[in-house]
Amino acid sequence: MSGVERTVFDDGETAELSDGVAEFYRAVGKQIKILRERAGITQKELAGLTGYSEDHVGAVERGIRTLGSST
To answer: Which one has a higher pLDDT value, 31 or 7?
Structure first.
């Protein structure tokens, strides 16, 4: 590499190869967290209401791509 620092996202995608999807996931995750906090509920409570695990809710809020369905 030519000494240029590369940004690597949580999902392993680099900024140079990004198609904007990583940024989209992070933006959506931030909005979900803001709305959850405004509603006064925890990640655990949101998980129970949506049928997803608390870990999954946390990953979504951090903008990490996840595969599969609820559990």
So the answer is: 31
14 - beta bridge partners? 8
Q: Could you tell me the two tokens for 6? A: 């590369």
- What are the φ and ψ backbone dihedral angles of 14, each rounded to 5 degrees? -95, 155
Residue 33 has pLDDT above 50, yes or no: yes
Largest CA distance in the chain: 49
CB atoms within 10 A of CB 46: 21
What would the two tokens of residue 62 be?
């951090």
At 20, list the tokens.
């904007």
How far apart, in Å, are the Cα atoms of 62 and each of 5, 31, 35?
A: 23, 10, 14
